[in-house]
């Protein structure tokens, strides 16, 4: 039952978790279960991508080694990049979006639960499709950036690039469907009183990321459509002999590709912005500026793409414009770094594993950010581009940034997801080995890069001064792998053996910690009413949230009119509000009741297999294209048309079935 | 439909809490979708414009192709009068869509005159919208086949590749819209569309108008500007 403003009980009461069994997972539309599926799938692909990286480092550990052939090396680094970006970091972020956003905004699910399931299944099938290429020995080999015309039929025969082109389009559908869902969820399903400037920082970052996805993915979709048409239907988009612009792909790809960088890092920034205030026992420093900085990063992120292309010779004006806009991004990013530092400044810090990873992000991302500022300058970039210096840079921001933030996020939210804490002692080993291994792997690459070692070469001769740095990087990879193995051990072991967490093991400020762990299927038995940015601190530790703005007695519902007609309503603070009165706060803590939604009369969406069928049919439809290149047009058409019909049928069956029982 | 959410009280556990904006979730999602589609067509249109005038062989959109670039002389291929007619048809379909939505919204109001009954027939206006859409697609099929007869295919040159891909994507969107309208019509015949369905018709209408607006951009940038 909902109990207003009493102390939480850390009793090991099992909350209601619903059915288990395979069918319940295949048909689930619960955002928490879908988040869990995303988490497990993407951790699996993180391990796959890590093993691919291990192969690369084994090959490069010394000069002229023959662990991998040149062709296999190309496939390995292409799939390492593609896997880590599209199958590991993005879906790991999606796992947090799914699990945490509805809990943080006080909602019972996302806006479109079945569309959410569809996004996951499309992601899973797309990932399997892309990795199926390994089994037939034709993994993509054109780099994760797939530069055309290198990837056109003239230079890349075979199915390798086909798997990549089709696989990325499938994954794009998943990301776009999820983005529409989360934009709607965040705009429209916030608890009463949670206006935009009271949203938790993770939700803010996630919100901005959804807009990046919505605006960036169509561009790569079109670039891929052009490449697909060139490869399958003989169009000329990337045919230089027909007058095509050799830079068309690069422009389209990087108009997507640079916002993609922020798609990868902003969720980790969001997690860090939850962890640091909690373990500093202070509200985040400069909350509005953090929100604005996130928006500014996203906005500027669309205006810097050609800094990936300084070496192509755009001329002084293009180089200058893109150099300057790139330097500008350092400002909002620096604001975030300083705000995290000022949040910790004067706080009573608790160095939990989550906090160590968050601080690790602040430090390591800054190193990657600084090397990024270095190649924002075109003359410096001309020395650094296509060398291991760039590899060092983007691994500092992607591993040191995104992955550190995600590891921290997993340690932080694991108790909410499972009801149990991960081991802190193993966590400490996990953190330090990862931290040391990461630096040992990637820091020497700065030097090998500046000494001229190019990217994407499968081997090198000795005597160029690179041997020692490469060996150090490869040893670092082993340390890193041990660190990640410890993480996995801790992750799986703690399911049964972790300490019971209770509602709120960390003493955090946001709504997700006011409900049992793991949350019941309906999340909130009664929707809370929010009167500040730190709703849980208001009722548990009011001194911590004394500085943040409040409204007393909740907000007033105000009708909004436009041009004389009623368009909606919003929550507004009454003008007479006294910031420190919160006796009438509608915030409360919910204890486990073991009751199902049905018993409580809360309407929940029905499980449905149709999203899975629709996703599967769509992937079959796409995969039919492969048979065109096997010179089997009838089979190709049969698979494409069969998949399309099956998809249409399941889509209609899905849309015409009501989401939930009438009530 | 936007008003329906507001009648629930804020702490109603039996049912869904009101949405934060008072708007239906679907309304917000379709706008996000349209935003995404803007970037899709922006990429297609930009590519067409970048490749304008770069084809090394004919036929060309606005200029005749004379030897030696073309072995036989070819006239400018775009047929602006015919496309103006198809553009008019598509614009009229948006008008029909507006009337269809209005008819669904006012289904419950009594109709007294013949004019009111005609304006209030959602089936008539949905059929009209769909038929005008199909007519537009017919124009496009005619245009595509005549281009192929004049020697322009998707493989011929950059103009052919970018033109057919751009207008083909637009045609595919119109086709999807027609299927959506036919689905609404099927529901209308089965149980009748009324004011409670206005939101769902509104979503189709927003999509339809968006596809129409994209065509205005394509018609201007591809056909009218030389």
Topology (SSEs and partners):
The complex is a heterodimer of chains A (663) and B (226).
Chain A (H helix, E strand, L loop, with lengths): L1 E2 L18 H5 L4 H30 L9 H36 L7 H23 L24 H29 L12 H33 L14 H33 L6 H15 L14 H29 L8 H22 L3 H7 L3 H31 L5 H27 L16 H31 L37 H6 L15 E7 L2 E8 L16 E2 L6 H4 L9 H14 L9 H23 L8
Antiparallel strand pairs in A: 1-4, 2-3
Helix pairs in contact in A: 2-3, 2-4, 2-14, 3-4, 3-5, 3-7, 3-12, 4-5, 4-17, 5-6, 6-7, 6-8, 7-8, 7-9, 7-10, 7-12, 8-9, 9-10, 10-12, 10-13, 12-13, 13-14, 17-18
Chain B lengths: L24 H26 L29 H26 L8 H6 L2 H28 L8 H34 L6 H27 L2
Helix pairs in contact in B: 1-5, 1-6, 2-4, 2-6, 4-5, 5-6
Structural write-up:
The complex is a heterodimer of chains A (663) and B (226). Chain A has helices at 22-26, 31-60, 70-105, 113-135, 160-188, 201-233, 248-280, 287-301, 316-344, 353-374, 378-384, 388-418, 424-450, 467-497, 535-540, 597-600, 610-623, 633-655; strands at residues 2-3, 556-562, 565-572, 589-590. By secondary structure, chain A is mainly α. In chain A, 60% of the residues lie in helices and 3% in strands. In chain A, strands 1-4 form a two-stranded antiparallel ribbon. Chain A has a two-stranded antiparallel sheet with strand order 2-3. The model of chain A is unreliable at 1-16 and 575-584 (pLDDT under 50). Chain A is built from 18 helices and four strands. In chain A, β2 and β3 (565-572) form a beta hairpin. Chain A folds into three domains: 14-497, Cytochrome c oxidase-like, subunit I domain (Cytochrome C Oxidase, Chain A), CATH 1.20.210; 535-543 and 550-561 and 577-589, no CATH class; 611-655. With 226 residues, chain B is mainly alpha-helical. Chain B has a single domain (23-224), classed as Four Helix Bundle (Hemerythrin (Met), subunit A), CATH 1.20.120.80. Helix content of chain B is 65%, strand content 0%. In chain B, α1 (25-50) packs antiparallel against α5 (158-191). The radius of gyration of chain B is 22 Å and the shape is elongated. Chain B starts with 24 loop residues before the first helix and ends with a helix. The model of chain B is unreliable at 1-14 (pLDDT under 50). Classes of the chains: A mainly alpha (663), B mainly alpha (226).
